[in-house]
User: What shape does this take?
Amino acid sequence: MDISLVVWGLVAVVCGGFFAIYGFSLFRISLFAIGLLLGFSIGMTLTRGQNDVIRFIISLVAGGILGVIFYTLFKLSLYIAGGVLGLVIALLVASLLSMQDGILQSAAIIIGLLVGGFFGRFMGDLVIILATSMVGAYAIVYGLSLIFPETLGASSSSGLIPINWFSIVLLVTLGLVSGLAQYQIFNLRRRLRRI
Assistant: This one.
């Protein structure tokens, strides 16, 4: 078992758990964590073939930089949340269609980011709930597939989750539970503002 994949899987599970639990409540910190996860993912992808320690350090620095950038762009949060939701949907579609071609997968991700970012502002706060619950569920399933490839199926290093009944049920369950819990928090905050 490759230690860098286990570390990457643990980072994905921890960040995904944070998104799923605190995504709406602590959205500014969630933006930092989303940037950390994306930057770490980009760093892990770009440093393939390097020493594990160097790969981890470069990925952590890239994640930290992107996390700080996302944290400071809080005023654009609806666009970022929409883009993240589009990214997760694009990754899920790419996983379902088994897109292994890097150019085709990159095009799907860019289209998902742009379309999601555009429509994010029209959805209001609901896009934050949808984006954080979906990215949390996706990150948890992806991380678990890296840590336990025998149970969930081998995951590709390009961010695609394995498609089998167990991973789909786990993704849907985590996404629904997280989304419903965050929606309850959203409704509670809205009711308390009226008082």
